[in-house]
Amino acid sequence: MDNALIHVATMLAVADLERSVAFYRDRLDFAVREASPDLALLARGPMLLYLVTESPPTPDKPGVTLAPPPLPDQTPVNIVFRVADCRAVFDTLRARGVRFLAPPHARAWGGWRCFARDPDGYLIEIEQPT
Fold it and tell me: I want to staple 11 with a disulfide (CB 3.0 to 4.6 A). Which of 1, 43, 50, 69 is the partner?
């Protein structure tokens, strides 16, 4: 796959496509590359993010449905953004309306991190490595 790989992307199933596109575009500076009524492709640097409304089983993924998390306090996804200065990013994003679970904390391993949630409850981690 090394010679064939073009990008790696994450796909999130969301309840309200417009609301999620606005969150990632307006608060996290993603650019919208493609948009349709059921799907949007966003990009920020080398990261690609697909947002999709419910995706029922298809012939190439039989028996699998993509759907938003059913409970807002449980999520199977944690999107990690590694940054040079966690506290500065926290201040910037908070000023843009991103709600964090707590302010940045120093970690035992020497870095800093804080967590927020997107409109569907997916966890967003801002991490500053050592």
Answer: 50
The amino acid occupying position 4 is A
Q: Among 9, 18, 8, which residue's Cα sits nearest to residue 120?
A: 18
Local structure of 15: helix, strand or coil: coil
DSSP 80-112: EEE-S-HHHHHHHHHHTTPPBSS--EE-TTS-E
Helix/strand/coil for 2: coil
Which two structure tokens, joined as six digits, stand for 117? 């949630």
Say how far apart CA 30 and CA 121 lie, in whole Å.
18
Instruction: Round to whole Å and give the CA distance between 119 and 101.
Output: 13
CA 81 distance to own-chain centroid: 9
Q: Convert the pLDDT of each residue in 49-106 to its tens digit.
A: 999 998 899 999 999 999 998 887 888 899 999 999 999 999 999 999 999 999 999 9
Class of domain 9-57+67-128: alpha beta
C-alpha to C-alpha distance for 117 and 103, rounded to whole angstroms? 13
> Quick check: 73 and 119 in contact, CB under 8 A?
no
